[in-house]
């Protein structure tokens, strides 16, 4: 049920919390379309996970496109009514000329920027990752011994490994040589555990592997992490391709941002475009990417949605490559940013042009404000889904809820009041006439 997901992200609560909230709130049940108040759960919390797996980011993006089209129609209708009250005859003549124009002019503004949606993971360090992997490997060994009926468990030195890990992790300042020695020891302990698991699995011949799907996934992740840590240890480096930063969410990658708060962020990177306050996710990926490569596709998507190219594109410097500047010039689209080449000795811009450029450049902060709204108000910087697919849906749901709140501003008050009256009549609820209130608010 999409309504449950909307309530969840508006109230910024977890799956169990939103089900309990709906269970005791008649207004939320009315929003979900229930015929009568009930004390029973509308669904089990685990069902929301299945819903996220089926409703991905593309579904929420299609819903957002519908919201944008309806919002543009409402605005166009309001402007049309204002024009009719002023000069109806002149407006009709202008409308005929506009319909005959085969090349309509550019219209609207498009803002773009990228951000990282932080995943809910512990800050990764090599020592902590190796310790978690070793503990998970020991759990797998215990599971194998239980299912295979092994009486004498193989020696894993788990107590010694944990003691050595705690001795270093509790140090306030860790010298480089001490940390490197501790990492080497944890690598050896983990390598021993992986070797034991492989030997125990080799004894199974005509039977399937006695691991559940999740346990088998952990085993593959642990082996891959061990290989990465050995490579970095030998090369004395902290960089490796597709580095794993969480054994519970192996799809999460470190993304270097260089921000003042944190130089490296861990989560999915999204590139969004902002159209009249509506946000759309144009690029979603767990690996780092150059957002400047998406400018042309974002502009074309704007044209597909509105029927025209934007009149102004407000972007950061990373978007303004030579190829993108050439593309914008061919389409007759203005953009905010300094031109390439050396600055002229004498300024030939008027005071009005300078003021206009500063104002247009400052308007790009609206997309930064949209990021702040999502991260502070709806938890876009704390994605608590554990799977790659459900994280994708979680991010799409937050963006859609923000667009839904934005769309409420486009609904005229008389239309909203008339809709409310119709709902009250259908529900057989007596209310006072709302016409005086409509006249006061008009």
Automatic annotation (TrEMBL):
Domain Transposase InsH N-terminal: 1-54
Basic and acidic residues: bias regions: 79-88
Origin superkingdom: Bacteria
InterPro entries, A to Z: Tnp_DDE_dom (IPR025668), Transpos_IS5-like (IPR047710), Transposase_InsH_N (IPR008490)
Name of the protein described by the UniProt record: Transposase domain (DUF772)
Residue ranges annotated for the Transposase DDE domain, each copy included: 313-404
Organism: Petrimonas mucosa
Region of interest (Disordered), residue spans: 79-111
Composition skew (Acidic residues), residue ranges: 89-99
